[in-house]
Design a protein that fits this description.
The two termini are about 55 Å apart. The protein has three domains: about 70 residues, no CATH class; about 55 residues, no CATH class; about 180 residues, Glutaredoxin (3-Layer(aba) Sandwich). The longest helix has about 35 residues. It contains 13 helices and nine strands.
Length: about 350
């Protein structure tokens, strides 16, 4: 085990030796000679053969040489310490390689290197993450979650070779164009800042003109409810306005547009207000004031409020949550499907 640990350490040290050898070539030659000897022993060990070079013993003897003369009683415990340290170096290296492979596969399949908390991955797309379960509280839960992450990663591999046709997904949502076949799906959360930025980018680039988009409001769930304070209420109201009979059209689109694009008379963005300022009662009051402004009567607003709390709307939430997590395998919002591909994160115009 000592020779394996020494080989690993030599590889790491080699980064610095390569730089030093530019100025002192002799250092590089000595290093290569030692590395070659180490590799000979390492190759034998990893193939479960006996190490004939004695490199491991050479390393230990070099470390213990001075100790033998000064404090011979410490030789045995220090020798054991070297073996233990070697085992730890090997275990940490193997664990690092496994975790690196896991992060790389997760990034390739799910778009994030952190399965449970996607927005903590600097390499992934900018998203409002759909977090997994909370932090494990004991070793058994940690191991269970670790294997569950691998299952989720491998379960998403087929997505890389999948035909992402919008007709395969039965989302309910808001059509921007009344006619024609839907050719793009945009799943977003009204409280998500990245969704706001993405929506603006789509508008500015003409994406809504070049594609027939189905907007799908989705409240990101969390352990204690929903990720953003008013998202559930807003999404429920949007779907309720689509279901009641009224002469008023496009109220859901107007609500989305106002939350993402407009500010109040104090120049505060409505999204910020719903997330951080409004209480639940105030948020509902503002939505009802908007509905009245859009042309709904008091009776219609009452029907919308009642319908928003029914199981009918709750079933939409459950169905969409199942599609997002188990079919699309989205780990963050916004998630879009268009041009035969799944796109995660902020929309970037070509």
């Amino acid at each position: 085990m000592v020779c394996i640990a020494a080989f690993i350490i030599l590889l790491i040290v080699g980064i610095f030796v390569a730089f030093i050898s530019i100025f002192k070539p002799k250092v590089g030659k000595r290093y290569l000679k030692t590395l070659k000897k180490s590799w000979g022993c390492f190759g034998k060990r990893v193939t479960l053969q006996k190490c004939e070079t004695g490199f491991g013993d050479d390393v230990k003897n070099t470390i213990l040489a001075k100790l033998v003369l000064k404090k011979p009683k410490l030789v045995k415990p220090v020798s054991i310490g070297i073996e233990v340290a070697s085992i730890l170096v090997v275990l940490i290296t193997v664990w690092s390689l496994v975790e690196g492979a896991k992060a790389g596969l997760a990034l390739w399949t799910l778009g994030t290197c952190n399965v449970q908390h996607p927005d903590s991955c600097a390499l992934g797309a900018e998203v409002c993450s759909i977090d997994g379960s909370g932090q494990p509280t004991n070793p058994i839960e940690y191991v269970g979650q670790w294997f569950a992450d691998w299952g989720e990663i491998f379960g998403a591999v087929p997505d890389k070779f999948r035909d992402w046709n919008v007709s395969n997904f039965d989302f309910q949502g808001l059509r921007i164009k009344e006619d024609g076949d839907i050719d793009a799906i945009d799943i977003f959360d009204p409280g998500c800042v990245v969704c706001l930025q993405s929506y603006k980018a789509q508008k500015e680039s003409g994406f809504f003109e070049s594609h027939n988009v189905l907007l799908v409001p989705y409240a990101i769930p969390s352990d204690d409810g929903y990720k953003f304070a008013s998202s559930e209420l807003i999404v429920r109201y949007i779907y309720a306005t689509e279901k009641i009979e009224s002469e008023v059209n496009g109220a859901g689109l107007k609500i989305i547009d106002r939350i993402f694009m407009e500010k109040d008379d104090k120049h505060s963005a409505y999204q910020t207000n719903f997330n951080d300022v409004y209480s639940a009662e105030k948020a509902k009051e503002v939505l009802q004031d908007w509905l009245k402004e859009f042309g709904y009567s008091d009776d219609e607003i009452k029907k919308i409020d009642e319908l928003a709390q029914t199981d009918e709307i709750s079933e939409i939430f459950k169905h969409h949550d199942d599609l997002v997590k188990n079919n699309i395998h989205a780990k963050g919002i916004p998630t879009m499907i268009f041009d035969g591909r799944k796109h995660t994160g902020k929309f970037e115009a070509n």
